[in-house]
């Protein structure tokens, strides 16, 4: 049973997400970290069953303000595709630039050997944009991240 697409929220890993994990090659890592959301913890446990993951709030999905936990509609998609970095002022959600900056700082602090961090698409793209371009305003140039996909960042 597929649930409707919603913005944010804390849900268990979907069957689609679980199936995707069995199709990907998992890189060897020294440590595993994840967001505090249920689906991220489940993902980390399925991917690295012998490496307990430490969870951090800083890796949680972006808060979508008035859309948090609600069905995605055309207005959401339009803003998400064109102005996602402004959701703090548009919808009362997280400041995406600040969240990306804090996540990058935490990643840099945790970086000791090869690590895996299980987090969520919007935050991943914000972090990659901030890391590569110095701003989250280019995050929509970065394609969507698929369930179970690994994105390598060398720091």
Describe what is shown at a glance.
The chain is mainly alpha-helical and 155 residues long. Helix content is 39%, strand content 6%. A 3-stranded parallel sheet has the order 2-1-3.
How would you describe the shape? globular
State the distance separating the first and last CA atoms. 40 Å
| Helix/strand order | HEHEHHHEH
Strand residue content: 5-15%
Rg for CA atoms: 15 Å
Mean pLDDT across every amino acid position: 85
Low-confidence stretches: none
Helix fraction bin: 25-40%
Main-sheet strand order equals: 2-1-3
Structural class: mainly alpha
Total number of beta strands: 3
How many alpha or pi helices? 6
The biggest beta sheet is recorded as: 3 strands, parallel
Say what oligomer this is: single chain
Give the topology, please:
Blueprint: H1 15-21, E1 31-34, H2 38-47, E2 54-55, H3 74-83, H4 87-91, H5 96-110, E3 115-118, H6 121-133
Parallel strand pairs: 1-2, 1-3
Provide structural commentary.
- There is one protein chain.
- The chain has 155 residues and is mostly helical.
- 39% of the residues lie in helices and 6% in strands.
- It has a three-stranded parallel beta sheet.
- α2 links the parallel β1 and β2 (54-55).
- α5 (96-110) packs across α6.
- The longest helix is centred in the middle third of the chain and has 15 residues, at 96-110.
- The protein is globular.
- It starts with 14 loop residues before the first helix and ends in a 22-residue tail after the last helix.
């Amino acid at each position: 049973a597929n649930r409707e697409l919603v913005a944010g929220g804390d849900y268990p890993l979907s069957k689609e997400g679980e199936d995707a994990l069995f199709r990907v090659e998992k890189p060897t890592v020294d440590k595993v970290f994840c967001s505090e959301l249920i689906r991220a913890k489940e993902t980390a446990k399925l991917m690295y069953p012998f490496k307990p993951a430490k969870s951090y709030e800083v890796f949680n999905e972006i808060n979508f303000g008035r859309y948090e936990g609600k069905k995605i509609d055309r207005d959401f998609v339009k803003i998400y595709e064109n102005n996602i970095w402004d959701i703090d002022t548009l919808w009362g959600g997280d400041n995406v630039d600040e969240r990306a900056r804090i996540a990058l700082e935490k990643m840099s602090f945790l970086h000791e050997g090869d690590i895996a961090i299980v987090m969520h698409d919007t935050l991943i793209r914000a972090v990659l944009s901030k890391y590569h371009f110095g701003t989250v305003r280019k995050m929509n140039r970065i394609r969507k991240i698929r369930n179970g996909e690994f994105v390598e960042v060398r720091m």
